[in-house]
Design a protein that fits this description.
The chain is of the alpha/beta class. The strands form 4 sheets. Strands 3-4-2-5-6-1-7 form a 7-stranded parallel β-sheet, with helices on both faces.
């Protein structure tokens, strides 16, 4: 058992879990809990929520109760804790009577440190009787958004946990969730009687996810092309309907993909078999409705495809959050079409109020996100009350795309706004476009819109071009779109634009996206992840699968992909070397270390490979961040080209790092070799510097517009660095 007087969070983190450092906020949360202060934790999937109650559970003398509605997650976490040498059990309906009693006995004897239960199980007299004679130190409520009626997954039995909590007055209480809007957070705090000062809100930004939205043209062909980049990798494909799940799974199987379907129409036993096959790496791809994924803790999901439009931003965020939980680069692709949005509107129309209005608002936010041209992270994080201030995230389609040349679209904008106004501000974009194109349909004749002065004045553009103009008008705040029926109206800013004839810059043609799938993933990964030995990694994966199958557990319970990647990068051939790998605790070394060392040693001997030194991880401070490392290397004399080669990234990424470095207050060496990268004339350069003087250097878009879109963003990034160097 544990000597609680000698334990610290750091010692448990290293010896039990095998990690050198905590993730952001984990240490602060653990301190708050061990100080016996009730704590609300809002942390995204993959942020390390479970560690924030598992570490205190090992520090407290008494029992920790973890409430979770997800049977699969309980089983998964208990298996992982057993692999770490931690005593944990779960009680739920999946157990046989004998197993249930054995787990009850383990709790009663005091051997168990963590007890996982479903809320309905905890509410039974049998459980109250079991726990009444025990010391309970920590009461952790996972998936806490289920408490709130404003949450996406409200469960009435969760409200009753308030009464259960009163039965353990000496236990500190934690509530944890991965998705909670500000309204839901306030409801959780109020219901549980927490204070706001004990609320910990981690960033919802998942840096390792490449986020992409592509126009949905030939979705099956697009999916097949995307999957070419993920041979033998795990992924989830979400579809709207059961029929679509079955059809797509059958198609992928014909193309020899390792795939299984998952939806509510399948027999329970088949659903369980398919889920288990995916978790255990016996099937690489699961095609599913949104019913799949709750409680799935598989960390090596390398991609998530949304074959159809999700019904809300919250659902979408939760579903893409199932990718890359191990912190390695992963790709999230959404195939978007107006038809999908119309299909969802049809189903929403069948609902009663107030659910209908709420569903329309969710769908409107989702379509705005899908149609947006700004960094994907900005609206996504804004939805959860977080501001994303970085200008270019470098890991989404909009930030990775070449900036489109801005054209003067003033005349098309005037035509569009005028048509919205003259038709009475009672119609959606499709009807306005029909008027502009001079269409002869029943709706136009019914409302006599063929008699309007704007009828047929837009034949110089196609329907898709006009729809793109429409979205830009909404984005710029010149037109407002009512959520339920998508009715357009001209805003005060739009009326001002019509009167003043102020210039409007934009694009006539929509950017062609969706051809980069997979290709840009490498720019998101670290040098370590890029340089690992693929052959050794494959051998280590095979060994992991062999051990996992023999133990009857998923492979990631043995080691995560991240641990294997480090082994295949540093080739550790001693106990000390292997113990330095992320995720290698004492118990895991004792159980599996020799097997993996044997594989590595044999491989190194055959291929004459030497062990590489791995420095212990440091806490994440400025010096440990990529931009700081790039800035320091540049100041030490490294060229842009050598930095690109070292990190396997583009010049654009290096320039972004240097800009962050200098904006953080660090000096940067002479701008002479930076200015040499520019192809502009000295006169053009001076005009840009004057624009920086006038408008500031934080955002490049105002400078781009000031230059009438004649100077591209690559040049502006170079000149901003030169400008900042001179100002420092």
């Amino acid at each position: 058992m544990y000597n609680h007087a000698m334990l610290t969070p750091e010692s448990i983190l290293k010896s039990t879990f095998g990690y050198d450092t905590f993730k952001p906020l984990q240490r602060e949360i653990i301190n708050n809990v061990t100080a016996r202060r009730d704590t609300l934790v809002i942390m995204p999937t993959g942020g390390g929520k479970s560690l924030t109650y598992q570490v205190p559970a090992l520090m407290f003398e008494g029992l920790t109760i973890v409430v979770s509605p997800l049977i699969a997650l309980m089983k998964d976490q208990v298996e992982q804790l057993h692999a770490l040498g931690v005593s944990a059990v779960f009680l739920n309906s999946s157990l046989s009577p004998a197993e249930y009693q054995a787990n009850m006995d383990s709790v009663k004897s005091g051997q168990t440190k963590l007890l996982y239960v479903a809320p309905e199980t905890l509410l039974t007299p049998r459980l109250f009787s079991l726990l009444s004679g025990l010391r309970v130190d920590l009461f952790a409520i996972d998936e806490a958004h289920c408490i709130s009626e404003w949450g996406h997954d409200f469960r009435p039995e969760y409200r009753q946990l308030v009464d259960v909590r009163k039965r353990f007055p000496s236990a500190v209480c934690m509530a944890l969730t991965a998705t909670a809007t500000p309204r839901v957070r306030a409801d959780i705090v109020s219901t549980l009687g927490f204070t706001h000062k004990n609320e910990f809100l981690a960033s919802f930004n998942r840096e390792n996810l490449f986020i992409e939205v592509a126009a949905k043209r030939d979705p099956v062909a697009q999916t097949l092309k995307f999957l070419e980049n993920f041979k033998d990798q795990s992924g989830i494909i979400y579809c709207f309907s059961r029929k679509q799940v079955d059809e797509l799974a059958a198609t992928l199987a014909r193309y020899k993909f390792s795939v299984r379907p998952y939806h509510a129409g399948l027999e329970d036993s088949e659903r369980r078999r398919n889920q288990e096959a995916f978790i255990r790496d016996d099937a690489q791809i699961i095609v599913a409705t949104i019913a799949f994924g709750m409680g799935i803790n598989k960390p090596n999901v390398r991609f998530v495809i949304h074959f159809d439009l999700p019904k809300s931003v919250e659902s979408y965020y939760q579903e893409i959050g199932r990718a890359g939980r191990d912190g390695l680069p992963s790709h999230c692709l959404l195939l978007y079409s107006y038809g999908d949005a119309s299909k969802l509107r049809y189903f929403i129309d069948q609902k009663e109020e107030p659910e209908r209005s709420a569903s329309y608002q969710h769908l409107e936010a989702m379509t705005r996100y899908a149609e947006g041209s700004v960094c994907r992270r900005k609206p996504l994080l804004s939805y959860f009350g977080e501001t994303y201030s970085q200008e270019n995230c470098g890991t989404c389609d909009n930030c990775g795309a070449e900036p489109n040349a801005q054209a003067d679209i003033t005349i098309p904008a005037q035509k569009f706004l005028s048509c919205v106004k003259r038709s009475g501000e009672r119609f959606g974009a499709a009807h306005i476009v029909d008027i502009l194109l001079g269409s002869k349909n029943e709706k136009i004749e019914k409302y006599k819109h063929h008699e309007l002065s704007t009828y047929g004045i837009g034949k110089e553009l196609t329907k898709s071009q006009w729809m793109h103009i429409s979205r830009q008008m909404v984005e710029r705040g010149l037109v407002e779109q009512e959520p339920a029926y998508r009715v357009l109206s001209v805003t005060a800013a739009g009326l001002e634009m019509l009167k003043s004839r102020k210039q409007v810059l934009g694009q006539v043609n929509e950017a062609q996206r969706g051809e980069r799938s997979g290709a840009r993933l490498k720019s998101t990964s670290s040098a370590e992840e890029l340089e690992y030995d693929n052959l050794l990694f494959a051998q280590l994966r095979n060994k992991r699968k062999e051990i996992a199958d023999a133990a009857g557990v998923p492979p990631y319970v043995i080691f995560s992909d991240k641990t294997l990647v480090q082994m295949a990068t540093y080739f550790p051939q001693t106990k000390d070397g292997l113990m330095n790998m992320s995720g290698m605790g004492k118990v895991k070394y004792e159980r599996y270390g020799t097997d993996f060392l044997t594989v590595i040693k044999e491989y190194c001997k055959e291929n004459r490979v030497e062990e590489k030194y791995k420095a212990p991880m440091r806490e994440k401070d400025d010096a440990g961040r990529r931009y700081a490392a790039v800035g320091e290397a540049y100041n030490a004399g490294e060229s842009i080209e050598s930095l690109m080669a070292r990190y396997s990234v583009t010049a654009d990424t290096i320039l972004n790092h240097l800009a962050r470095f200098i904006m953080a207050g660090n000096p940067l060496r002479s701008a002479e070799d930076l200015i040499a990268l520019s192809t502009l004339t000295p006169d053009q350069q001076q005009k840009v510097f004057s624009a920086f003087d006038e408008l500031g250097s934080d955002m490049l878009k105002p400078i781009h517009e000031k230059m009438n879109a004649t100077i591209n963003y690559d040049e502006l990034k170079i000149l901003r660095l030169c400008y900042l160097c001179e100002k420092r």
